[in-house]
Design a protein that fits this description.
A: mainly beta, five-stranded mixed sheet, 5 helices, 40 strands, about 35% strand
């Protein structure tokens, strides 16, 4: 089991099909001195082969330079580095800066889009944007108002735009767009507004629409083949989505796509997850609500679905399935397998065969998770692949207007979008997590286009009977389905991790610390407090032969909503509140890039 | 009568919000209509009317400073908060402003509890839990102490924008959203209770049950 598949991910990227994939993206990713895609690579490993900064010298790390974005509110994602230029994005208004690394970060060009500010009002959880992408000499940006923009990477000139959604009905863009081959994959946000989730593939050359695959609805609009598209090895059959909803609820039924997308060039498949069904009141939408909360594998060229796996049928807790799918080639039961590992909001970590969609492992990655006793792993069972729901924590079974208490995890999930990293040197996944539980009371809501469509009241608090903090940073073995070690954190870890060949793992904290830890043991090796809380993702690059590490600070996002004022534990009784540290005691709004280096 | 009034209020809000007109006129219209409505209605002092009003310091002089008006019956904005009469299962002051009623053992009136629920569903994703504010939206438990009820209604109905070189703050217009507008008085009363410090953070532990009057008005508003 300890067989280390060195460079597994690299092999994935450099496989013989490179000519078929987008050459420019493949070539850009293959240079470790660049940070050419938000996820580090198409496999979403967030692993860098750079090794100047090691577990032995990282203690000497220091700030090399900083850059203020001029925008407050939550800064998610990370800058890109292509050649000698760094590209920095901001939350709404989604400004883009091209910084000249040869000239002390001088601003070469800036792009400042004019967007109707009314879009801010329909962004459920702050005006975040998870970063830019790069392909064919263009910087690609998904604006909050759903306009996708291609900018000339050298000049900043607009090459094309395409508005793929309607903020008037609550549709927005927060995820990075992902160029694959001759297309650009674009998701959609708005699960709290009753949007109908879909993946839109644009033609990279001119931004026109190539295909569109809805998460819900008729088969032809979902781009599924009832006979060939499978769920756990069996055909999904005709009208699989329509049969799982009551009436027309699917039309406002959510299944948004706002996480990260990965891509396997050999299989020609793009992988992503769908979000929550709308509303949050499960009683208003009987059925399994397919295909919300689902891992999807689709053909890049046609959009046709190869396989689905619905993790949380008929969601009762807002456990969006959008988190990243990390693609690795590892040994499983003595066989080399093409694996997909996914840390879901619902608190279960899934290891699957990404070629067939076979479920291999489904285990809790936080011992606090209590809404389920686990997933039925017996292929002969009628409930194969379904999580067994604990009645006490079922907001559906307890019913409307009833307060279901003590559910772990909270709606934030054991992990939200903040992406994990994988090191082929340790065969471990490094996962930023939330350690928060909730009370959840669903009630009836009416739908109004463009207005919040929630239908539940939540109280969130640190996981009881634990270390009192609201987060952990864990190392996970995806083959055994076990936590190797877990570092308690005072606040949820809302920052994407980075693993490097220097045997160092980096992540940020909500107080604003950039931390470096030993990839094998988790021992803390270095930390530095940046000006604001970190919800961005750590990246690394080389300029003039020297390795740098960069991180965006700027507290906000969903973390900024619940944690800014501190959380309360209603179970401690009326009045026993304020016992938990409030994030506002540690940090303030900001918007800054901090770049680190070794001395000399 | 009440349902009709609510329906007409919503119609007004639709008209104004749709035109995206900042609603001075709306506020006046809404306010007047509401005041007339509640004023014209018979006071329905229920069984709970005799119960001690939390913050029952009606005799005390008005708090002058904008400091938290703990146990005070007057807000910094000069508005009284003592519960005077009930209509449709909601408590109102003598000036027909929605207010809360919390008995000595901590039992909150249903409308205030309803306000907690609706606030937590519709408002908290921006304004933070328990009216405490977030990294980008103000603490409404404080706002309601300084802002009058009718100003509160105006902003809730029409929204508010502060978009400039340093801020990108946009509050949507909720005048057409039944999940908010049918409960706007509840949300207001809840926030005032939070603001004056009479209601602690979190879910109210004890509450009155929902009255038939409240349920009837709720049904007609939500289905209207």
């Amino acid at each position: 089991m300890k067989k280390v598949v060195n460079g597994a991910c690299l092999a994935l990227l450099l496989s013989g099909t490179a000519a078929l994939a987008n050459d420019s993206v493949m070539a850009a990713i293959a240079k470790p001195e660049q940070w050419a895609i938000q996820t580090g690579d198409y496999a979403n490993t967030r692993y860098s082969t750079l090794d100047q900064i090691t577990k032995d010298n990282v203690k000497d790390l220091r700030v090399a330079w900083t850059f203020s974005t001029g925008v407050l509110r939550g800064h998610e994602g990370a800058p890109l580095v292509i050649g000698d230029i760094m590209y920095v994005h901001t939350p709404f208004p989604n400004n883009v800066f091209a910084l000249d690394l040869n000239d002390n970060g001088k601003i070469l060009w800036r792009y400042e889009p004019q967007q109707d500010p009314n879009v801010i009002a329909v962004m459920c959880c702050d005006t975040v944007n998870r970063g830019l992408s790069y392909a064919d000499g263009m910087i690609l940006l998904g604006q909050a108002d759903t306009t996708v923009v291609a900018l000339d990477a050298e000049s900043g000139e607009v090459k094309w735009t395409n508005k793929i959604g309607d903020p008037g009905i609550g549709e927005t863009l927060t995820a990075t767009v992902v160029p694959i081959k001759d297309k650009v994959m674009v998701g959609i946000s708005g699960g709290e507004y009753g949007v109908r989730g879909r993946m839109t593939a644009l033609n990279l050359a001119d931004g026109t629409e190539a295909w569109k695959a809805y998460s819900t609805g008729p088969d032809d609009e979902m781009l599924v083949d009832p006979e060939k598209t499978t769920h756990l090895g069996k055909p999904i059959g005709a009208d699989s989505s329509l049969n799982s909803w009551e009436g027309d609820q699917w039309k406002i039924g959510g299944g948004p796509i706002w996480g990260w997308f990965s891509y396997d060039p050999d299989l020609n498949l793009v992988y992503y997850g769908t979000g929550n069904p709308s509303t949050w009141n499960p009683s208003q939408r009987p059925g399994d609500n397919k295909w919300s909360m689902t891992i999807m594998a689709r053909d890049v060229d046609t959009g046709m679905a190869k396989w689905f796996y619905q993790m949380t049928p008929h969601d009762e807790w807002d456990y969006d399935g959008v988190n990243e799918m990390i693609l690795t080639n590892q040994e499983f039961d003595g066989q080399e397998r093409k694996l997909l590992t996914h840390f879901d909001r619902n608190g279960l970590a899934y290891t699957m065969d990404r070629e067939t969609g076979e479920l291999l492992v489904a285990e809790k990655f936080d011992p606090a998770v209590n809404w389920t006793t686990g997933v039925d792993m017996d292929p002969n069972s009628e409930t194969y692949g379904r999580p067994a729901v604990v009645a006490e924590y079922s907001t559906e079974q307890n019913g409307e207007d009833e307060n279901t208490t003590g559910v772990c995890p909270a709606a934030l999930g054991t992990k939200d979008q903040q992406p994990a990293a994988f090191s082929p040197k340790t065969n471990l996944f490094y996962v930023p997590t939330n350690h928060v539980c909730m009370d959840y009371e669903p009630f009836r809501v009416a739908y109004t286009a463009g207005q919040p469509y929630v239908g539940a009241t939540l109280s969130m608090y640190p996981a009881p009977d634990s270390h009192g903090g609201m987060g952990n940073f864990i190392a996970w073995d995806n083959i055994k389905g076990e936590i190797k070690w877990s570092l308690p954190e005072q606040f949820s870890v809302w920052s994407g991790a980075l693993a490097t060949a220097g045997d160092v793992v980096f992540y940020g904290t909500l107080e604003g610390y950039l931390k470096a830890i030993d990839a094998e043991t988790g021992e803390e090796l270095y930390k530095f407090k940046t000006p604001s809380g970190i919800i961005g993702n750590v990246m690394t690059y080389v300029h003039d032969g020297k390795q740098y590490v960069g991180i965006l600070s700027g507290v906000g996002g969903w973390a900024g909503i619940g944690l800014a004022a501190g959380l309360t534990n209603p179970n401690e009784g009326l009045g026993a509140v304020g016992g938990y540290a409030s994030l506002s005691q540690y940090t303030e709004l900001g918007g800054q890039l901090t770049v680190f280096e070794l001395p000399g | 009568m009440t349902s009709k009034t609510t329906a007409s209020l919503m119609a007004i809000c639709v008209a104004y919000a749709a035109c995206a007109m900042a609603g001075t006129a709306l506020a006046q219209t809404t306010g007047t209509a509401l005041a007339q409505t509640t004023g014209a209605a018979p006071a329905q002092a229920g069984a709970g009317a005799a119960a001690a009003v939390s913050g029952d310091a009606a005799e005390q002089p008005a708090a002058e400073a904008p400091a938290p008006a703990q146990a005070s019956a007057t807000l910094p904005n000069g508005q009284e908060i003592a519960a005077d009469h009930m209509e449709n299962g909601r408590w109102y002051t003598a000036e027909d402003i929605p207010t809360f009623k919390i008995s000595d053992d901590g039992t909150v009136d249903w409308a205030t509890f309803s306000g907690y629920r609706r606030y937590s569903a519709e408002c908290h994703v921006c304004h933070g839990p328990d009216g405490e504010g977030s990294t980008y939206a103000p603490a409404l438990k404080t706002s309601v102490l300084n802002m009058g009820y009718y100003d509160f209604l105006e902003i809730a109905a029409s929204g508010k924008q502060e978009v400039n070189t340093t801020a990108n703050l946009v509050m949507p217009a909720f005048g057409t959203n039944r999940n908010v507008w049918c409960y706007i008085d509840d949300i207001y009363a809840y926030l005032v209770a939070r603001g004056v410090g009479d209601l602690p953070r979190g879910r109210p532990a004890k509450k009155e049950s929902k009255s038939d009057e409240f349920a009837a008005q709720e049904d007609s508003c939500m289905s209207g």
